[in-house]
Amino acid sequence: MMRWCEVSYSCVTMKTGFSLQSADAALVRIPAPRFLWAMPVAINTSLYAYPAEIWEQIPDKDIIIKLTILIPIVLFGILGNVVLLEIIFSNRSLRTATHLLIANLALIDLVTLLLCPPMFLLHDIHQSYVLGSVGCKLEGFIEGGLLITSVLALCVVSYDRLAAIVLPSKARLKNTSVAVATGLCWVVGFAAALPFAIYRNYRERNWSNFHETFCAEDRQVMPLYWDLIVVLLVWLPLGVMLVTYSAILCKLDHYERSALNREHPMVVRYKSRVAKTLFVVLMSFVVVRIPFTVMIMVYYKDVNDGNTFEVSEGFVMVWWFAKVAFIFLYSAVNPVIYGMTNRTFRKAFKSSRILSMICRFEEKQNPDKPPKGRILTFSRKILWPREPCVDDQNNEEKFLNRVQGKSR
């Protein structure tokens, strides 16, 4: 457990790492020098010693461990998102509305991985806040804006998939609609993050043995705002994905019954593949958001409600690091989730110039097996591929459109 000290100032008692409270207030134990610390200006802190351990920077061993975890995640994510953007904009056939939405998501993830890890490490490694007054205003604004923009873009991608399978063709997004939706995601995302720039302020305190700098939040406004942040970053996208993906699976179930009546296995395979992809998307989102949600709820709810609880410093520090590392991990694996689960993208990845400089792809062909044919014949009732049966995603989408048109 942490070692705690109490310093009395006239009628109030300061708990280490927390704001001044009355002497009979419940002792809340949490290493708040890593988070927020408000204190009345009337107290002359230069007359007193710093009431917590002075360490200035975490041990070198901890720095190495954190860098060992974050550097591979960041490098992998930057490479994956850059390659995804390259193959989308270098192939004219991939510049569809759906793929442009994925490109927007990749761009957000790329900017997140370029800007956020350095700011987080500088904040996490040092005891005092080293980014200054400008960094105090911009750090939360940039990180929060990118996160909100990311989840809004994720909601648009979910709607696009819903429109492609469930809704009428006129409800599908066109390239013009994609441009408008993309712009709105960025504008609304950073507009929603403005309180980070408005209600966070850089502060300095001179103790008799330590010069403290920190970035403090408005304790009246920000707890309420963090409730909104949790809704925007967790519950809103989770609800949108649950509704849209449930509707997609229900529609595919209808397609499956229609296809089985015609003894056609194409939609059965398509439904299985879509179900697996949607499950991976949903579970990855839930897993990476758990540490973030728990940390916000514990800190802003239990602390502000005056609840008493005890936590070890090691546990809170690990959870604090995991909260951010998991968000970076999600930005890094998005190219895998949205790219490698799509057959068209998998083929395009092999033609990437960037990847060709790193690794070499070789087509393995069986000389005893002739290449699959791609010529299709059309009957009056249904799409029937010639032998051998072609398992091609474009043909499956055409078949789904025909079944959807007949079911209306």
Protein topology:
Blueprint: E1 6-9, E2 12-15, E3 20-22, H1 60-90, H2 97-125, H3 132-165, H4 175-192, H5 194-198, E4 200-206, E5 211-217, H6 222-261, H7 266-302, H8 313-340, H9 343-350, H10 353-358, E6 376-378, E7 383-385, H11 393-407
Antiparallel strand pairs: 1-2, 2-3, 4-5, 6-7
Properties at a glance:
62% helix; 408 residues; Rhopdopsin 7-helix transmembrane proteins; mainly alpha; 7 strands; 3 domains; 11 helices; disordered N terminus; three-stranded antiparallel sheet; two-stranded antiparallel sheet
Structural overview:
It is found in: Membrane. Keywords: G-protein coupled receptor, Membrane, Receptor, Transducer, Transmembrane, Transmembrane helix. One of its GO terms (molecular function) is G protein-coupled receptor activity. Belongs to the G-protein coupled receptor 1 family. This protein has three domains: 6-47, no CATH class; 60-358, Up-down Bundle (Rhopdopsin 7-helix transmembrane proteins); 376-407, no CATH class. The chain is built from eleven helices and seven strands. The protein has helices at 60-90, 97-125, 132-165, 175-192, 194-198, 222-261, 266-302, 313-340, 343-350, 353-358, 393-407, and strands spanning 6-9, 12-15, 20-22, 200-206, 211-217, 376-378, 383-385. The chain has a three-stranded antiparallel beta sheet with strand order 1-2-3, with no helix packed on it. Strands 4-5 form a two-stranded antiparallel sheet. Strand 4 (200-206) and strand 5 (211-217) form a beta hairpin. Helix 1 packs antiparallel against helix 2 (97-125) and helix 7 packs antiparallel against helix 8 (313-340). The protein is elongated and about 80 Å long. Mean pLDDT is 75; it is low at 1-42 and 373-392.
